[in-house]
Amino acid sequence: MAEGIVAVLIALICICLAVTVWDSNRFVTIACEIKSDKITKPCRLVLLADLHNKSFGEGNERLLAAIDKAAPDGILVAGDMLTAMRGADYSQALSLMEKLSARYRVYYGMGNHEYRLGLYPDDYPGMYEGYMSGLKRAGIEPLINETVYLPECNIAVCGAQIDRAYFRHFRRKPMETSYLSKLLGTPDGEIFQLLIAHNPVYFDVYARWGADLVVSGHVHGGIMRLPVLGGVLSPALTLFPKYDGGMFKEDNSTMILSRGLSSHTPPVRIFNPGELIVIDLKPGK
Fold this sequence. Notes:
single chain, 13 strands, alpha/beta, 7 helices, 6-stranded mixed beta sheet
């Protein structure tokens, strides 16, 4: 009896290890559709989040092929394309951004890792300046509490960079709607407001501010996903986070939360492959 139990446990461990290796090195493509009578022309956008400097094939060829297959009008980046580690190599992330910018319009929202590089330059010497300069050479201007208006579609793409205090471990720091208004101003209710906000925890605040659509990342799908229970652990070290991935509703606002493309600390994903999300924005109700 004992030998049988041990054999089963060993088999389960081997299966989990195999799944971990498989899921940590692949991604799936997810399609979403959002309709609004504020949108005047269909627009297809691809959402990328939490690459953490990973490469899917040489030069990220597998990821680029999937993006090209989707044939988007633009790319939404919801942050953490690199990892804030002293002396870390961010060349894979920058190379991908360069290739994407040569083919598409890129709307880059900052994550906590990009933000951290700039906040602590002594801890990460030269990394923030090097990465940001590389983005600008590629023609990408990160949306650091800024908005770009797409007149043909009547869509405003906003990028929110919130303070690091809102990324605390274990507990959520309260955020007032006025805080977001100070960062981004008051949104025009006649324009479809697409908000890139890396941390999904504050979806209720984003909705009250006036976001029609929020795109987020940060949670990595909860590292491991379990049936019914969903994602297990958030970066804030919260067990079974409310927002782990997928689509959520709050009044008239929708959030599309990417499970990300990779992870860090630990750099594994279990029953939780990376995600490339294709979003079709269409006129209508």
